[in-house]
Amino acid sequence: MFSKQLIKSSKKKKNFYENYTWIIFLLMWILPIFDIRFGILGLVSMSMAVILSIFSKGKPHCAYFCPRGGGLQKILTRFSMGYKTPKFITNKITRYGFTLLLTVKVVSGIVKSQNIYQLGSAMYMGFVATSILAITMGILMKPRVYCGELCHAGNIAGLINQIKTKNK
């Protein structure tokens, strides 16, 4: 009885967040055009994925709060062709290699930035590039295939959870 209510409650929450996170995804595209400092929203989103995974079970940011994931789900569901994901994308070497590459790129952008405008620009360019990849993959395969395979914030959150599970 209690578990059925919990599942029902979780589904309502998920639907609520999916119905609104796509708006944040669009704002993350649009706002930096007017003020590049809004590019930092991408860094905030990535950080939230890691922080939430440290203090909770699973990857709640990915499941409920991620603007890109919600945006891809909401917008691409109608357009997705549903082709099978190629094995080279699901390969752990590709997944963690891409995660390492993007993490180095983010850290490099943070270190090289001399002011908030440069930081916003670096984060926005990374957001746009990875979003174009995510949208392309979502159209060809499933809407959130990027999230499940290549998203570096999600992969880092997953690694944190694996470490937490092994240490229990």
TrEMBL record:
Domain of life (superkingdom): Bacteria
Keywords: Membrane, Transmembrane, Transmembrane helix
Record domain 4Fe-4S ferredoxin-type: where: 39-70, 128-164
Residue stretches spanning the membrane: 16-32, 123-140
Protein name: 4Fe-4S ferredoxin-type domain-containing protein
Biological source species: Ilyobacter polytropus (strain ATCC 51220 / DSM 2926 / LMG 16218 / CuHBu1)
